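ESCALATION

Customer reports they have been waiting on this structure for their group meeting. Please prioritize. Original submission:
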Amino acid sequence: MSLRRVKIGDMIGDSPDQLLLRRIRAQGNFIEYVPLSLIGLVLTEIETASPWPALSIGIALVCGRVFHVIGMYCNYAPLRGFGKVLTYLSLVLTALLLSGAMLGFV
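Update from on-call: job pushed to the front of the queue and completed.
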């Protein structure tokens, strides 16, 4: 993102440059979802007896984030949407596993 800012000469804030705006949003979206997901993965790893649930959810999260950023940069909505679905799925599964662990089901 910094190289793009230097290239177009717009160093602060938003820009009319569409590529820079997509990069800003991709970074913002990452910051909005990944920290919470990582905290959930750590708690899932601690609370469940097997490492497989956390590993499976982590793989889904990484794939979702990669698909989302590729979709953002290439302006390809289906890939971006699939990335969103995988990201949301990882959050929901983490919440369900943690809820089940707290209630004694897992």
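Sent to customer with the following note: The chain has one domain: 2-103.
Escalation resolved.
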